[in-house]
Amino acid sequence: MTVTHSRSPPSEGQVGIAQAVPAFLLSHRPKKLVARGSTPRDRSDAARRHRMKEDRAMIVLVLMAVALVAGLCVLAYTLAVYALPFMLGFETAKWAYASGSGLIGAGLVGLAAGGAAYGLLVSPSHRFGRRFRG
């Protein structure tokens, strides 16, 4: 027995795809939430409980997304406060070394530039804010 997939009718000794596949594989019915003998009210209650589970899952996902955004904001702030002055000092030290100031001089210039950048990033919120408040 061979199965044909063409549009032409099957010839003798051949069967069409609908005859070769069992009927229970061709029919798809959604899974029932409750038993068959239940009332329509029981089915609607089951559907309501199912929707409530989906709503809870969506609320949890939204809260997780908010927490992730807050964490990324904290990370960006931390990188701006600590990594930016470090990279500025490092690049200034490379520039000073390339201009011929020597290894110790380049290190001191880089340290001064990184310290100044860190002081400018941290000082406005801490020192100057307290001075001008009175």
Give keywords.
134 residues
Mean pLDDT: 76
- The dominant shape is elongated
Total number of helices = 4
Q: Roughly how many Å is the radius of gyration?
A: 36 Å
Description:
This protein is mostly helical. It has one domain (35-128). It is 74% helix and 4% strand. Helix 3 crosses helix 4 (102-133).
Topology:
Blueprint: E1 2-4, E2 14-16, H1 17-20, H2 23-26, H3 40-98, H4 102-133
Parallel strand pairs: 1-2
Helix pairs in contact: 3-4
Summarize the structure.
With about 130 residues, the protein is mainly alpha-helical. The chain has helices spanning about 15-20, 25, 40-100, 100-134; strands at about 1-5, 15.
